[in-house]
Amino acid sequence: MNFNFSASLIATIIVILILFMFYRKRKEDEKGLGWKLVGFFVLGSFVFSWQGIPIPAGYIVIVLMLRPRKNARIKQYSALLGVIMVLLGRLIPV
């Protein structure tokens, strides 16, 4: 098995487990929370580069424009996990 494939598979499993852990730590029941956490993760992982510097545009949108009322903390953590995974991917080339 290729090392790149193995690293990607392990990272994906870790992200899924962390998102599941966030889901289990919810404060209130919310319809479709699992999908919302995945959406916040994807939005948080939206990054563009400006002169070689990664700018977490998705996370900035979440902080400035999206104000979730229910389970706000785990949604913010999910978005932050997206930013962390992108930055780790840029720092540790596989």
In short:
The protein contains four helices and two strands, in the order ααββαα. By secondary structure, the chain is mainly alpha-helical.
What amount of the residues lies in strands? 5-15%
Helix content estimate: 55-70%
Give the N-terminus to C-terminus distance in angstroms: 14 Å
Class from helix and strand fractions: mainly alpha
Q: pLDDT below 50 for ≥5 consecutive residues: which ranges?
A: none
Number of helices: 4
Main sheet characteristics: 2 strands, antiparallel
Q: How many domains?
A: 1
What is the overall pLDDT average? 89
Could you outline the blueprint of secondary structure elements for this entry?
Layout: H1 3-24, H2 33-44, E1 48-50, E2 53-55, H3 57-64, H4 72-91
Antiparallel strand pairs: 1-2
Which terms summarize this structure?
mainly alpha; two-stranded antiparallel ribbon; 2 strands; 94 residues; 4 helices
Q: Could you explain the architecture of this structure?
A:
By secondary structure, this protein is mainly alpha-helical. Helices cover 66% and strands 6% of the residues. A hairpin with a 2-residue loop joins strand 1 (48-50) and strand 2 (53-55). Helix 2 packs parallel to helix 4 (72-91). The protein starts with a helix and ends with a helix. The model has no long low-confidence stretch (mean pLDDT 89).
